[in-house]
Amino acid sequence: MLCHDRMGKSILITGGARSGKSTLAERMALALGRPAIYIATAQAHDTEMSDRIALHQSRRDADWRTVEAPRDLIGALRETDGTEPRLVDCLTLWLTNLMLADEDWQAATHALAAELAHQSAPVIFVTNEVGAGIVPENALARAFRDAAGLVNQRIADACDELWFCVAGHPLKVKPA
Amino acid sequence: MLCHDRMGKSILITGGARSGKSTLAERMALALGRPAIYIATAQAHDTEMSDRIALHQSRRDADWRTVEAPRDLIGALRETDGTEPRLVDCLTLWLTNLMLADEDWQAATHALAAELAHQSAPVIFVTNEVGAGIVPENALARAFRDAAGLVNQRIADACDELWFCVAGHPLKVKPA
Amino acid sequence: MLCHDRMGKSILITGGARSGKSTLAERMALALGRPAIYIATAQAHDTEMSDRIALHQSRRDADWRTVEAPRDLIGALRETDGTEPRLVDCLTLWLTNLMLADEDWQAATHALAAELAHQSAPVIFVTNEVGAGIVPENALARAFRDAAGLVNQRIADACDELWFCVAGHPLKVKPA
């Protein structure tokens, strides 16, 4: 198998809520190739979430094809692996979906990280920082932020690049 | 119109609570000129806040002149635009004040960002990162952190420099 | 007194929950010397905490000797000061322990920062970012995050290096 420059490149973009992660990820994906594939993990459980999905969709245009993958990210990555860059938005919702479905999120994270080595087209993941506030009083919230942090670490290890988004602007964390 | 070095420079400093943003901002402002003008958005609604304002004031001395502007930042910037550097502390409280007064914070943010191009003297904004904790259970808190993140992105776009403060020390985010 | 390279070096590592701070700190400590000394501030008040302590211990092996110091960090640093690097994990729990015991945490922080100048062997501190979420509704939580931020600033000032951990990867903040 030939190894082409930029082929298979994997990028993780993290940051707080409304730090501009998705916009940055969309720009990075389109810089890697047009059209690009948007792999959405969001499920419209309520109005707040469907409003947010609609807002994200309104920012994307004919440059994008959308695939929905609330839980089976590996399937979605395999199915879309060709030459077009993929944007997975986002890992935190994917984790939420796995937990709500009572799936083994640790095994799924490990498998997702391992899958990246077999991907030929670029993939950009968006995820959330949820661990920099005060310790939540709620045990479930503490368990979730622990899980989210571990997912971020595991995928960051497997990715070629890691970016931290601050007020819409990226800081490169990896490679250092 | 002549363009002088350092004239009109705009800087946004963000970070978590007690990350040393205000101290850093005060140092940066005085490095740009003395005396400097402190544009306070805080309103003393309760003892906790008045204690905090007093603490901030005690750190400033004869090098500073204070202007209060809970909501009309554009007015305060225009009125103080000369040669002295201005420090606006902080955008997160300004947003809170606009929301409490039921003003259109999105229009106000857009106008504030646009105003920066017309300012001759430097202006340094302090703001807060509020989006890196667990998703708040409270819908109002979620709406506020979304708004705060959008204000930060919009003003960061309009500023020449963006700094992220960690444990009292600045990381430069923009220009990269 | 001779000043040896690396002798007495002090490092502060901060980041959100599950950002990989402890793993990074352990790697840094062992890079400075083997075996290393783990100064644990954790106290097993409940099952959640004892599980977390067990997890941390399982990651360490014969390369480590453990000293428990829930509150008297200066005593522990003096007692262990020789040639072996020390890892203090973590300052946020130390602050919690001081507050629960009704001790003067500000004086203790000041004394700890001053002590660093007298230490001959390296010391690495781990601490938590707790101020980047939404403002807590609870006044005690607000007071704690203020105190935690001040401890981080004070110790960061006294340390030679400051690192911010993102998804398991370090960003150098100081020296800039």
Automatic annotation (TrEMBL), chains A, B, C:
Pathway: Cofactor biosynthesis; adenosylcobalamin biosynthesis; adenosylcobalamin from cob(II)yrinate a,c-diamide: step 6/7; Cofactor biosynthesis; adenosylcobalamin biosynthesis; adenosylcobalamin from cob(II)yrinate a,c-diamide: step 5/7. Keywords: ATP-binding, Cobalamin biosynthesis, GTP-binding, Kinase, Nucleotide-binding, Transferase. It is an enzyme of class 2 (transferase). CDD domains: CobU. Residues 7-154 form the AAA+ ATPase domain. It comes from the Bacteria. SMART domains: AAA. The active site is at residue 56. GO terms for molecular function: adenosylcobinamide kinase activity; ATP binding; cobinamide phosphate guanylyltransferase activity; GTP binding. One of its GO terms (biological process) is cobalamin biosynthetic process. InterPro entries: AAA+_ATPase, CobU/CobP, P-loop_NTPase. Transmembrane segments: none annotated. It catalyses: adenosylcob(III)inamide + GTP = adenosylcob(III)inamide phosphate + GDP + H(+); adenosylcob(III)inamide phosphate + GTP + H(+) = adenosylcob(III)inamide-GDP + diphosphate; adenosylcob(III)inamide + ATP = adenosylcob(III)inamide phosphate + ADP + H(+). Its EC number is 2.7.1.156, 2.7.7.62. GTP binds at residues 15-22, 40-42, 68, 89. Catalyzes ATP-dependent phosphorylation of adenosylcobinamide and addition of GMP to adenosylcobinamide phosphate. Belongs to the CobU/CobP family. This is Bifunctional adenosylcobalamin biosynthesis protein. It comes from Antarctobacter heliothermus. The gene is cobP.
